[in-house]
Amino acid sequence: MTEPDIRIVQLDHATLAALADGDLARARQTSPVELTPYLASEERRSTWARRARQLVETPVDADWVTGVVRDEAAGLTIGGAGFHAAPDEDGMVEVGYGVDPAYRGRGYGHAILAHLIERARREPAVHVVRTSIRPDNAASLAVIARYDFVEIGEEWDEEDGLEIVRELNLQHAPNA
What is the DSSP string of 77-146? Predict the structure, then answer.
């Protein structure tokens, strides 16, 4: 099966704020691409709220944070993805993504992670890609399995609970 060819479209503050409020109609007025009900759902709202605040507090993160994922060949908006922030002082970026339940099981998770890793590889300042995944999230664990992520510890996330932290060293990792 060929992985879908996806792109991530960054959103402006107005669109992020509307999605954070769960106001899909308002978000659609300022979005450069189609938005789906999933993107304004309770599951996604806290991510959009964090990213809207982040654009105000740390504008340098604008090109890195969560955007809308599009499968242009299929003409679909299938979720949201991006990094938590621009690379930190150690050259680390952390990935985050969510696929609309209507499109899960079609290879989008793999395509998104591959896209994010390749974006990180193109950036000289990035040396490490990090994931934080709940131990019971079998789908996300399967997505990262094709890469050489190494477990480095665990953390407690206020929304998701216990997460296992893994890192992929881009200087030593083969392309998948």
Answer: EEEEEEESSS--TTSEEEEEEEE-GGGTTSSHHHHHHHHHHHHHHT-TT--EEEEEE-TT-HHHHHHHTT
Tokens of 175: 């392309």
- The number of distinct structural domains making up the chain is 1
Q: What are phi and psi of 167, to 5 degrees?
A: -130, 145
End-to-end CA separation in angstroms for the chain: 15
Query: For the segment 75-91, what is each residue's pLDDT rounded down to a tens digit?
Result: 999 999 999 999 999 99
Enter the pTM of the model: 0.92
Relative orientation angle of helices 13-20 and 42-57, to the nearest 10 degrees = 140
Q: Which domain holds residue 16?
A: 6-169
